[in-house]
Amino acid sequence: MNTNEPIYSMPKMIGKDAHVLILGSMPGAQSLAKQQYYANSRNQFWRIMYALFNEEYSNPSYAEKTEFVKKHQIALWDSIHYCKRRGSLDSAIKDEEPNDIPSLLREHPDIRVIAFNGSKSFAVFKKHFKSGIPSRIDLIKMPSTSPTPSRYPKTMDEKIEDWSKIKNYL
Protein backbone atom coordinates (compact mmCIF):
# COMPACT_ATOMS: atom_id res chain seq x y z
CA MET A 1 0.00 0.00 0.00
CA ASN A 2 1.57 3.29 -1.13
CA THR A 3 1.59 6.05 1.50
CA ASN A 4 1.07 8.68 -1.23
CA GLU A 5 -2.36 7.30 -2.03
CA PRO A 6 -5.09 8.03 0.49
CA ILE A 7 -7.12 5.14 1.85
CA TYR A 8 -10.74 5.58 2.84
CA SER A 9 -12.76 4.05 5.65
CA MET A 10 -15.83 1.98 5.00
CA PRO A 11 -19.46 3.11 5.27
CA LYS A 12 -20.91 3.18 8.74
CA MET A 13 -22.87 0.13 9.85
CA ILE A 14 -25.85 1.30 11.85
CA GLY A 15 -29.42 0.27 12.51
CA LYS A 16 -32.22 2.72 13.21
CA ASP A 17 -32.17 2.12 16.98
CA ALA A 18 -28.45 2.05 17.81
CA HIS A 19 -27.47 2.91 21.37
CA VAL A 20 -23.74 2.09 21.20
CA LEU A 21 -21.33 3.42 18.58
CA ILE A 22 -18.05 1.54 18.36
CA LEU A 23 -15.34 3.51 16.58
CA GLY A 24 -12.20 1.92 15.23
CA SER A 25 -9.42 4.01 13.76
CA MET A 26 -9.05 2.84 10.12
CA PRO A 27 -9.77 -0.70 8.91
CA GLY A 28 -6.74 -2.84 8.14
CA ALA A 29 -5.78 -3.92 4.64
CA GLN A 30 -7.75 -7.21 4.85
CA SER A 31 -10.89 -5.45 6.01
CA LEU A 32 -10.62 -2.80 3.31
CA ALA A 33 -10.01 -5.41 0.61
CA LYS A 34 -13.07 -7.42 1.71
CA GLN A 35 -15.11 -4.32 2.70
CA GLN A 36 -15.88 -6.03 6.01
CA TYR A 37 -15.31 -4.65 9.48
CA TYR A 38 -12.76 -6.68 11.45
CA ALA A 39 -12.12 -9.14 8.61
CA ASN A 40 -8.71 -10.29 9.89
CA SER A 41 -9.41 -13.73 11.36
CA ARG A 42 -7.00 -13.00 14.23
CA ASN A 43 -8.89 -9.86 15.25
CA GLN A 44 -10.89 -10.65 18.39
CA PHE A 45 -13.73 -8.18 17.79
CA TRP A 46 -16.42 -10.59 16.62
CA ARG A 47 -15.56 -13.23 19.22
CA ILE A 48 -15.80 -10.59 21.94
CA MET A 49 -19.17 -9.31 20.68
CA TYR A 50 -20.66 -12.80 20.63
CA ALA A 51 -19.23 -13.58 24.09
CA LEU A 52 -20.82 -10.42 25.53
CA PHE A 53 -24.24 -11.79 24.69
CA ASN A 54 -23.44 -15.41 25.61
CA GLU A 55 -23.78 -16.48 21.99
CA GLU A 56 -21.67 -19.18 20.39
CA TYR A 57 -19.23 -17.90 17.80
CA SER A 58 -19.33 -20.57 15.10
CA ASN A 59 -17.71 -18.69 12.24
CA PRO A 60 -20.85 -16.89 11.07
CA SER A 61 -21.06 -15.16 7.71
CA TYR A 62 -20.37 -11.44 7.55
CA ALA A 63 -24.09 -10.80 6.96
CA GLU A 64 -24.89 -12.75 10.14
CA LYS A 65 -22.28 -10.76 12.09
CA THR A 66 -23.66 -7.43 10.92
CA GLU A 67 -27.22 -8.46 11.78
CA PHE A 68 -25.99 -9.62 15.19
CA VAL A 69 -24.54 -6.24 16.17
CA LYS A 70 -27.50 -4.33 14.74
CA LYS A 71 -29.90 -6.59 16.66
CA HIS A 72 -28.01 -5.64 19.82
CA GLN A 73 -28.24 -1.91 19.00
CA ILE A 74 -24.54 -1.57 18.20
CA ALA A 75 -23.22 0.56 15.34
CA LEU A 76 -19.74 0.39 13.80
CA TRP A 77 -17.69 3.10 12.14
CA ASP A 78 -14.24 4.67 12.28
CA SER A 79 -12.79 7.87 13.67
CA ILE A 80 -10.84 8.35 10.44
CA HIS A 81 -12.47 9.02 7.06
CA TYR A 82 -9.21 8.88 5.11
CA CYS A 83 -5.50 8.83 5.72
CA LYS A 84 -2.19 7.70 4.30
CA ARG A 85 -0.77 4.47 5.66
CA ARG A 86 1.65 1.78 4.58
CA GLY A 87 0.36 -1.57 5.81
CA SER A 88 -2.28 -1.92 8.51
CA LEU A 89 -0.71 -0.58 11.70
CA ASP A 90 -2.29 2.40 13.44
CA SER A 91 1.20 3.71 14.17
CA ALA A 92 1.71 4.14 10.40
CA ILE A 93 -1.33 6.41 9.93
CA LYS A 94 -0.48 9.87 8.61
CA ASP A 95 -2.46 12.90 7.43
CA GLU A 96 -5.76 11.61 8.75
CA GLU A 97 -9.08 13.37 8.27
CA PRO A 98 -11.98 12.41 10.54
CA ASN A 99 -15.38 11.02 9.71
CA ASP A 100 -18.29 13.37 10.44
CA ILE A 101 -19.17 11.87 13.79
CA PRO A 102 -21.16 14.89 15.05
CA SER A 103 -23.56 14.53 12.10
CA LEU A 104 -24.01 10.82 12.77
CA LEU A 105 -24.85 11.58 16.41
CA ARG A 106 -27.43 14.19 15.34
CA GLU A 107 -28.99 11.69 12.91
CA HIS A 108 -29.09 8.96 15.59
CA PRO A 109 -30.12 10.61 18.88
CA ASP A 110 -30.51 7.23 20.64
CA ILE A 111 -26.73 6.73 20.72
CA ARG A 112 -25.70 6.92 24.36
CA VAL A 113 -22.02 5.99 24.27
CA ILE A 114 -19.05 5.94 21.95
CA ALA A 115 -16.72 3.02 22.66
CA PHE A 116 -13.29 3.45 21.10
CA ASN A 117 -11.64 0.28 19.85
CA GLY A 118 -8.08 1.14 20.86
CA SER A 119 -5.95 4.18 21.56
CA LYS A 120 -5.61 5.57 18.03
CA SER A 121 -9.35 5.86 17.51
CA PHE A 122 -9.68 7.73 20.81
CA ALA A 123 -6.70 10.01 20.07
CA VAL A 124 -8.04 10.98 16.63
CA PHE A 125 -11.48 11.67 18.07
CA LYS A 126 -10.07 13.89 20.83
CA LYS A 127 -7.86 15.75 18.34
CA HIS A 128 -10.72 16.60 15.96
CA PHE A 129 -13.78 16.79 18.22
CA LYS A 130 -12.98 18.89 21.28
CA SER A 131 -16.53 20.21 21.09
CA GLY A 132 -19.74 19.50 19.23
CA ILE A 133 -20.41 16.17 20.92
CA PRO A 134 -23.65 16.15 22.95
CA SER A 135 -23.12 15.89 26.71
CA ARG A 136 -25.56 12.96 26.77
CA ILE A 137 -22.90 10.81 25.08
CA ASP A 138 -20.41 8.95 27.26
CA LEU A 139 -16.95 8.22 25.87
CA ILE A 140 -15.15 5.02 26.86
CA LYS A 141 -11.78 3.80 25.64
CA MET A 142 -11.68 0.05 25.21
CA PRO A 143 -8.75 -2.32 24.75
CA SER A 144 -7.97 -2.90 21.09
CA THR A 145 -9.28 -6.09 19.51
CA SER A 146 -6.46 -5.97 16.97
CA PRO A 147 -4.20 -8.99 16.48
CA THR A 148 -1.17 -6.70 16.83
CA PRO A 149 0.35 -7.05 20.30
CA SER A 150 -0.04 -3.97 22.47
CA ARG A 151 2.17 -2.55 25.18
CA TYR A 152 -0.40 -3.67 27.74
CA PRO A 153 -1.56 -7.12 26.62
CA LYS A 154 -4.79 -8.47 28.06
CA THR A 155 -6.23 -11.94 28.02
CA MET A 156 -9.40 -12.60 26.07
CA ASP A 157 -11.36 -12.84 29.34
CA GLU A 158 -10.02 -9.46 30.46
CA LYS A 159 -11.00 -7.89 27.15
CA ILE A 160 -14.49 -9.38 27.37
CA GLU A 161 -14.84 -7.97 30.89
CA ASP A 162 -13.71 -4.51 29.72
CA TRP A 163 -15.95 -4.57 26.66
CA SER A 164 -18.94 -5.64 28.79
CA LYS A 165 -19.23 -1.98 29.86
CA ILE A 166 -21.12 -1.28 26.64
CA LYS A 167 -23.99 -3.45 27.86
CA ASN A 168 -24.80 -0.74 30.43
CA TYR A 169 -26.04 1.39 27.51
CA LEU A 170 -28.29 -1.16 25.85
TrEMBL record:
Alphabetized GO MF terms: DNA-deoxyinosine glycosylase activity
Organism domain of life: Bacteria
Domain Uracil-DNA glycosylase-like, residue spans: 14-162
Protein name: DNA-deoxyinosine glycosylase
SUPFAM superfamilies linked to this entry: Uracil-DNA glycosylase-like (SSF52141)
Coiled-coil residue windows: none
EC numbers for this chain: 3.2.2.15
Keyword Hydrolase (UniProt): yes
Pfam families recorded: UDG
The keyword Hydrolase appears for this protein: yes
Top-level EC class: hydrolase
UniProt keyword terms in alphabetical order: Glycosidase, Hydrolase
Organism: Sporolactobacillus shoreicorticis
